[in-house]
Specification:
The protein is 67% helix and 0% strand. It contains 16 helices and no strands. It has helices at residues 9-24, 34-43, 50-58, 61-71, 85-92, 94-105, 117-140, 148-154, 158-173, 179-200, 205-212, 224-241, 248-252, 255-259, 264-271, 274-285.
């Protein structure tokens, strides 16, 4: 994402207001879709079965249709031969179907920020790319990929919520929220606001730490590996979406990649997966 600019006096006043809301617990947190909450619970239950996940997704016809369309996309099933959720889960695996269902149920439609829809869409696009790269990096590092997708998807959840809160604050104060202020606020308050959101949603510790310690992963008390992976995957996402902002040579030189014991040739091999990530992202991002 682009580097934030300094806040104007209006932007600072809105930031102070959001900070006050955080302290009093008055900030508006979007509701976590019930189906997303249940998918997360199922994905963490070692005793859950294919039929359980299929039944859950089928309880929401729109989501079921969306999941089947993605599962049958060229990114996952080139011959588009899957005809049932049970078949899709058997072929692609419960973890992947959970990821697809989560990407489908968690979307920009959760946020209300008139005039800033395109910015929230860009934030969500980067988050989805981060989630997909997180799985690739975890595999390359031979690390546990459990929850990596969700860690990546939610690492910037505070940004759209901050923009929504800033829009609400600007409306109440009868002032105009500038684009620069909105983006700066989103960047500066992401961790504080995002931590509030994840706490409200009762997310697992590993996901909360991946966000809370994102900018200082070495201090993560429990989820060090996951936090490093999310930090690295966000860099890969930035490079993929805007190589001018983060050129290849600068990406390869990032300290977090060395901390993950990824050598240059391994990073180069990861970068060769770009088309796979793009294809998956396009399939999941379609409405």
């Amino acid at each position: 994402m682009p580097s934030p600019t300094s806040l104007t006096p209006t932007g600072q006043a809105l930031a102070d207001g959001i900070q006050q809301q955080l302290q009093t617990g008055d900030i508006e947190v979007p509701l976590l879709p019930e189906v997303a909450n249940r998918v997360i619970a199922l994905s963490q239950d070692a005793e859950s079965e294919i039929a359980d996940l299929a039944q859950l997704i089928q309880s929401d016809p729109s989501l079921a249709a969306h999941v089947m369309r993605i599962a049958n996309s060229a990114a996952y099933t080139p011959n588009a031969s899957l005809v049932s959720l049970q078949q899709a889960i058997t072929r692609l695996g419960m973890n992947l179907i959970c990821d697809i269902a989560l990407a489908a149920s968690l979307s920009t439609k959760m946020f209300k920020a008139p005039g800033f829809e395109s910015h929230i869409n860009d934030i969500w696009k980067h988050a989805l790319a981060t989630a997909l790269w997180a799985k690739e990096i975890a595999r390359a590092c031979r690390l546990n990929v459990e929850a990596t997708f969700l860690c990546g998807l939610l690492h910037s959840i505070g940004q759209p919520v901050t923009i929504q809160a800033a829009c609400d604050g600007a409306k109440r104060a009868n002032v105009e929220l500038s684009e620069d202020d909105a983006l700066a606020l989103a960047e500066q308050l992401n961790i504080e606001v995002g931590s509030c959101v994840l706490k409200s949603w009762e997310m697992p510790m590993i996901i909360c730490e991946a966000l809370q310690y994102f900018n200082d992963y070495k201090t993560a008390p429990h989820a060090l590996e996951q936090t490093m992976i999310v930090n690295a995957s966000a860099l890969f996402a930035t490079h993929m979406l805007d190589s001018e902002q983060l050129p290849r040579t600068e990406l390869i030189a990032k300290e977090v990649l060395a901390d993950l014991n990824l050598y240059q040739d391994e990073v180069e091999m990861l970068l060769e997966k770009r088309d796979i990530v793009v294809s998956s992202m396009e399939a999941m991002a379609e409405s």
